[in-house]
């Protein structure tokens, strides 16, 4: 996957910006606060529907403007594998409240359909939350990967989300239990396959993740990923779990069991758990998870997703920078890196296209 053009308007401090990146390594430099991270935010926004620094309405739209706009053009299967190379285009206009989108010349009704088209894996200063934060980010990690590699996942995910919304509304309204029966059944029929998709996907990531973590952080010892479905699945089916939890759910006003409460964890051979990780180890663990996801995408589709590394030099030491960049270079992944200067860990002679952000403008060097 290779982005050939990125345009953004009214995003943070930029009135307008256009980037025509190279297929390989793209370095975006600039002073602190110049806006280089905003370029990666635009890519991330198109791939996830939100910035990695928060929601669109939380300062992403430039002050005084009604909405931001992002346009991305990219090539899929640029090596000619799979179904052959083709050019795709996507545009998004977002006010922070409302959005409109187009994909390959057609209007898009679901933001998820737009996001599923362009695959971007992002490593940024907050990525350690994938390991140290709450379960929502880890569920989102699984679901994003499944959107891109499992065609049947999105309908199941949407069915479950709709059923959960309806059941929670009934619980809040203290509806008669007879009305809950149908939604319990719907939730279970969607939730069981949803859990199976997630567990299988995590199992498929396991060997790649273990190898990457051993390379990046060997002191952590052998690692294993473990899926937690959100209910005592080994003891009873979801339909029974919902029925048993119904009285509690009616008192609380929300559904307390199911895949929306799912999570996953990592068992480390040399540590008792994630609580014992240093911040640096948590970052390396998160990076291993993200790169394993990118490698799995390549195994399924025959191409890497776009890789965005924000402020790499401040997140990784020189040794780890060199390992990561050498691996990405060997993979032929299109990579975007931001920094105040060329990262010291970059391999000498590694072909790099450099851009510089200054006073709201992007300059090719």
Keywords:
about 375 residues, alpha/beta, Rossmann fold, Glutathione S-transferase Yfyf (Class Pi), Chain A, domain 2, six-stranded antiparallel beta sheet, 10 helices, 14 strands, about 20% strand, globular
Question: Describe it for me?
Answer:
This protein is an alpha/beta fold. The protein folds into two domains: 1-119 and 305-365, Rossmann fold (3-Layer(aba) Sandwich); 134-278, Glutathione S-transferase Yfyf (Class Pi), Chain A, domain 2, CATH 1.20.1050.90. Helices cover 42% and strands 22% of the residues. It has helices at residues 36-48, 111-115, 129-132, 135-149, 153-172, 177-216, 238-252, 279-301, 312-315, 318-331; strands spanning 2-11, 14-19, 25-29, 68-76, 86-94, 99-103, 106-107, 120-123, 223-228, 263-268, 306-309, 335-339, 352-358, 361-364. Strands 2-1-4-5-6-7 form a six-stranded antiparallel sheet, covered by helices on one side. It has a six-stranded mixed sheet with strand order 8-11-12-3-13-14, with helices on both faces. Strands 9-10 form a two-stranded antiparallel sheet. Helix 4 crosses helix 6 (177-216), helix 5 (153-172) packs across helix 6 and helix 6 (177-216) packs across helix 7. The radius of gyration is 22 Å and the shape is globular.
């Amino acid at each position: 996957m290779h982005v050939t053009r990125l345009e953004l308007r009214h995003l943070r401090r930029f009135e307008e910006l256009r980037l025509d990146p190279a297929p390989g390594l793209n370095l975006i430099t600039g002073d602190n606060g110049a806006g280089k991270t905003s370029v990666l935010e635009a890519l991330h926004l198109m791939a996830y529907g939100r910035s990695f620094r928060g929601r669109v309405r939380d300062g992403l739209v430039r002050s005084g403007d009604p909405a931001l706009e992002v346009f991305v053009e990219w090539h899929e299967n640029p090596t000619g594998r799979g179904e052959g190379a083709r050019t795709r285009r996507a545009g998004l206009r977002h006010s922070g409240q409302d959005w409109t989108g187009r994909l390959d010349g057609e209007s898009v009704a679901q933001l998820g359909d737009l996001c599923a088209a362009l695959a971007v894996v992002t490593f940024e200063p907050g990525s350690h939350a994938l390991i140290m934060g709450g379960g929502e980010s880890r569920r989102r990690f699984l679901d994003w990967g499944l959107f891109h590699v499992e065609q049947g996942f999105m309908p199941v995910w949407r069915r479950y989300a709709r059923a959960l919304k309806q059941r929670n509304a009934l619980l809040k309204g203290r509806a008669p239990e007879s009305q809950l029966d149908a939604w319990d059944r719907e939730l279970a029929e969607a939730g069981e396959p949803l859990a199976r998709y997630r567990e299988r996907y995590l199992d498929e990531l396991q060997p790649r993740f273990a190898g990457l973590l051993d390379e990046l952080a060997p002191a952590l010892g052998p690692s294993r990923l473990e899926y937690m479905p959100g209910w005592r699945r080994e003891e009873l089916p979801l339909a029974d779990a919902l029925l048993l939890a119904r009285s509690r759910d009616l008192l609380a006003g929300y559904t307390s069991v199911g895949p929306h409460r799912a999570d996953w964890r990592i068992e480390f051979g040399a540590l008792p758990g994630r609580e014992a990780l240093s911040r640096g180890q948590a970052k390396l663990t998160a990076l291993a998870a993200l790169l394993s996801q990118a490698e799995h995408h390549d195994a399924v589709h025959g191409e890497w997703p776009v890789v965005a590394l924000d402020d790499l030099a401040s997140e990784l030491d020189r040794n780890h920078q060199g390992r990561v960049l050498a691996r990405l270079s060997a993979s032929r992944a299109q990579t975007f890196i931001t920094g105040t200067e060329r990262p010291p860990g970059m391999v000498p002679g590694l072909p790099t296209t450099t851009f510089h952000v200054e006073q709201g403008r992007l300059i090719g060097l």
